[in-house]
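Let's practice the habit of predicting before peeking. Look at the sequence and jot down your guess about where helices and strands might fall. Then scroll down.
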Amino acid sequence: MSRTPDIVLSPVVKRDSMMINSTIAAAQAKIEWLGTHLEKKELLTGFCDMNIESETFAIEKMIEFYKTHEKDWAMDRDTKKYFDEMIRIADNGKIKDHIYEKYNRLINYEQGAARKDDYIQFKIDKNISEDTNQILYKIFYKLE
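Done guessing? Here is the structure:
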């Protein structure tokens, strides 16, 4: 197994420097979380990519990166909209609900089913689009 995983970026990320750099920051944060919380054998299964805590950590780091570098690059309006929405999700304590919906309830989140309808209403009330559900990157390990 290679020591560091590879990251594949979605084509949507390539629209501007903010999306590319913030997505890489999120992926690196997730890799850091996985490396400190999981055993090597568990990483090899690939299911580690569905850990709600690693996803939460990655989103928090992505938003932190955005806030730190918001003025550094010109941004596509879709990028600005994406981060405005993600910040509304985070500020309202809904990151785990967002992840649960984004991955079609395939992620382990005990409260997810009970909070699903509340989250749908939240998205309507706070004008959160389906754009926030795009998969921006994948992490994988190569077997050698």
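How did you do? DSSP finds six helices and two strands in the chain.
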